Amino acid sequence: MFTTIRSRIILIAVLVLVSVYNLLPREVTIRVRTETGAMKDTTVTIFPPNKGLDLKGGMHLGLELDESERVSTDPARDIDLALTILRKRIDEFGVAEPLIQKVGNNRIVVELAGIDDPNRAKAIVQQAAFLEFKITDETGALENVLPAMDRVIRRLGLDVGGTSPGVQQPSAVELLLGGGGTDSASTPQDTTGQDTIRVADNLLVRGTLAGLISTTGFVPGEYLVPETAYLRVDSLLRIPDVRRLLPRDLEFRWNFEPTDGGDAQRYRRLYVLQKDAIMNGEHLVDAQAGLDQVTNGPIVTFELDRTGGRRFGRLTQAHVGDYMAILLDNRVQGRPPVIQSRIDRRGQITLDGRSITEARDLALTLKAGALPIPLKIVEEIQVGASLGEDSKRAGMTAGLVGMLLVVIIMISYYHMAGAVAVLALGFYLLFTMGGLAAINATLTLPGLAGLVLSIGIAVDANVLIFERIREELALGKTVRLAIDEGFAHAMSAIVDSNISTILTAMFLFQFGTGPVKGFAVTLIMGILASMVTAIFVTRTFFMIWIDRKPAMTTLSI
Amino acid sequence: MRLFSNTHIDFLGYRRLAYWISAAIIIPGLMLIPVFGINYSVEFTGGTQVHIRTAEPGDVARMRQALSDNGVTGAEIIQFGSDTEFIIRARVAVEGADADNTQATVAAVSAALDAVIGADQWEVLEAAAVSPKVGGELRQKAFFAILLSFVAVLFYLWYRFEWRFGAAAVAATVHDILATVAFIAVFRIEVSLFVVGALLSVVGYSLNDTIVIFDRVRENLRRSKREDFVGILNDSINQTLPRTALTSGTSFAVLLALATLGGEVVRPFALVMLFGVAVGTYSSIFIASPVLLAIERRWPGAQVRGVKSPVPGTSSKRKRPQTVS
Fold first, then answer.
1. Using CB atoms within 10 A as the burial measure, which of A208, A274, A400, B113 is most buried?
2. Are strands A442-443 and A50-51 parallel, antiparallel or unpaired?
């Protein structure tokens, strides 16, 4: 096999063609959202091999199930479900070749290249998007128990407010921190920032629940709490002894955001709702963002499947005249509308005071389905595109200079044979890049460093061979024989040393994440390519060389 | 041009000196670790790191003040290359927050920077927020990756040579790892994933170098009798010396280019590799062979040493048929 120069050249040509083919620019169609909000398919050209986030900028997120609110009964199933849902959501988000994969058995890694709004991306990934419809309480249950609640609070010594942080702070802090994820599509950073200030004020607010909670008089089960007292009231209502006073089939829920009262003060609406939801997002088949024709505010219209529609129809008919709260991730959206007649498969959610972008994001997350359990970010790496550019340029410069140095050393040391090795180095680079593109590997900054490093190592195989040839020549062998023996003798050292390096690189690959994996892959591919070029390509060049000058008695080496 | 050809240096004669030199590098270096502690990056410790570029040269003292005003205490601010690039590292989350909640820290850091620099006057080049749990896992995984790669190489060399060679090669590699870790500790190089990658590359490089020499030892053992093991080792090292010099030279040249031109992110990697290549070359000559000798004296091998399974076509007597068209 491949003993003739012609067959060898054909094989090299095939390898070159395959490498070049894999490196050809590809056209990839991605979906992006245009200014007007419509989804549009756009074709972008991608130059293989893929570049990692550190070379082109983007965002890396590590996500795990957040079981602080709800404990998962089957984590393995929930993480798989979350993975599917995230795929759907991100697909709609419009990113070229996003990476969404499960790492280990409890973590999801999401990599989005070229993201310009990291907060929005985080919100889309994290939002549970758990949609529910609940009927508000009409029995005035809260008014009936308020005096009893205040008595409990007084007994616990909490009525002065802020003096017993032991009970209050946990829930306040929990709200402050846990709020980020469930706070819907608003930017988590902003809410967290504001809450920091709010908590400080809030723990100082005094007064009884009866003094802080007032009815609105319009919607049954709806109450107003001054925004400054929001966290305090929430903390108090969470105390088990207080909570117990409310009938079991009812629950407290807050509105998503504060509203302006008539008296320049801001209020937060508190709702008492029937615990059993009459419908949830499970049966949702479609959701679209739009503008309300009357108020011109953003809305999301949705459509339920047949079963859901039937059930929703039956229950809304039974509740005509009642008020229905729409909850997203346990926060009430807008004000509960009155059920005027039977609602079947279509309905709408009003999003007062929010942008059309948020409505669109909500529609797409609703459509993709709710996360079984909310996700928390355990790892976040965000690389600005400019750093990516800088790194790439520096890496390229270093690579070129390094290569130039190697070329100078090789040619000045081995003369003509060195030139052959340098030529082989060109093939080596082509094969490595082509190989990386072929297996769809991602080139990262460490990978680029690995590539530069492997240039130094790639010449090693040639050095081993050349030194061997020199030794054989020194023993007085003919040129042809010295070349044959040089290649043959160097073989075991090349194979053994390279396989050991591949072994260590494989462990690096196993353990590494993102960038390091890229480094390991580049190193392995580089070693394979260097073995092919040193053993096969360089050998072929030598064969051609001898063939051209059969009478050669001295070798330029 | 020829370098180191036909040398007859008694390398094994220097082995006691070499042991002392290695001990002098490794022991004080490792002893410094408890004193200074290893400078792990946030990937390993968990925490928040923000790499920013400001429009105007930034004032570190004012940034620090703004950060502690926002509840981020004890943040490190490092100037990175120029006076408009900074790395802000907060290992601990915002006070009172859950340690795993790195998001709150990110928010607090950007609020602080908005206040002191102005919202449009800075951009994030890179931001990382890693929970301590994830960082701990990573550290464990890195340790096991190095350990398991040793085991794998030991078995491979056992299969290809025999256990004495494998053990000596692994001993030399452990030496290199320890020396490199000492180097990292003494020069306070930040241990990021990238640097761990460098450490594993040092393992690969050092093994590579050692195996080339051992390959020659194996070959020379096949030719001559083993009475003079010291002589065989010395001959093998001398014969491979030109190759050792040249390969180290090219690797060094490339790494120097990376260290000087590759940019701030690549520099720690290149520095660790530079040291690793130097120490790897040294150890394959002055540590691996003496250790092999020591093992051989303690547990003498069979009469015929060397290869268990030669690569086909490499045995010294066989010639490959050559047809030239």
1. B113
2. parallel
pLDDT the model gives residue A176? 37
Q: For B240-279, how does the pLDDT look when each residue is reduced to its tens digit (9 = 90+)?
A: 999 999 999 998 998 999 899 888 778 888 999 999 999 9
Q: Are residues B76 and B194 both part of a single domain? A: no
Q: Which of residues 186-245 of B touch A (CB under 8 A)?
A: 193-194, 196-197, 200-201, 203-205, 207-209, 211-212, 215-216, 218-219, 239-240, 242-243
Of residues B78 and A311, more confidence is placed in A311
Residue A169 predicted with pLDDT over 90: no
Chain B neighbours among A 195-214 (CB < 8 Å)? 196
Q: How many helices (H) and strands (E) does chain A have?
A: 17, 20
pLDDT above 70 (res A182): no
Q: What is the CATH number of domain A5-24+384-548?
A: 1.20.1640.10
- Looking at the structure, do residues B75 and B185 belong to the same domain, yes or no? no
User: Among residues B130, B152, B187, which one ends one of the domains?
Assistant: B130
Average of per-residue pLDDT across B156-180: 88
Query: Min CA distance, A370 vs chain B (Å)?
Result: 22
Strand A259-260 to strand A266-274: parallel, antiparallel, or no bridges (unpaired)? antiparallel
Which amino acid makes up residue B313? G
CB atoms within 10 A of CB A306: 11
Q: Is A105 exposed, middle or buried (0-12, 13-18, 19+ CB in 10 A)?
A: exposed
Shared domain for B69 and B172, answered yes or no, is no
Cα–Cα nearest to A467, from A413, A543, A426: A413
Please write the tens of the pLDDT for every residue from A75-97: 888 888 888 888 888 877 667 67
DSSP-assigned beta bridge partners for residue A346? A303
Considering the domain boundaries, does residue B320 fall inside one?
no
Contact A507 B323 (CB under 8 A): no
Query: Does B325 map to a domain?
Result: no
Q: Is B258 in the A-facing interface, judged by CB distances under 8 Å? A: yes
A300 Cα distance to chain centroid = 25
For chain B, what is the mean pLDDT? 80
Highest-pLDDT range among A185-189, A272-276, A384-388, B119-123: A272-276
Query: Does B192 lie in the same domain as B258?
Result: yes
Domain boundary among B75, B99, B130: B130
Same domain, B259 and B169: yes
Residue written as tokens 């040619």?
A411
The residue range of the domain holding B68 is 47-130
Q: How close does chain B come to A14, measured CA to CA in Å?
A: 20
Enumerate the domain spans of chain A. Answer: 5-24+384-548, 132-358
Q: Provide the pLDDT for residue A168.
A: 37
B contact test, residue of A3, A195, A511 with most B CBs within 10 A: A511
Can you tell me the distance from the alpha carbon of B127 to that of A383, in angstroms, rounded to the nearest whole number? 6
Q: How far is B54 from chain A (nearest CA, A)?
A: 13
Preferred mutation among B48, B114, B246 to probe A, highest tally of A CBs within 10 A: B246
Instruction: Supply the pLDDT for residue A32.
Output: 64
ipTM value > 0.95: no
Q: How do residues A420-429 score in pLDDT, each as one tens digit?
A: 999 998 999 8
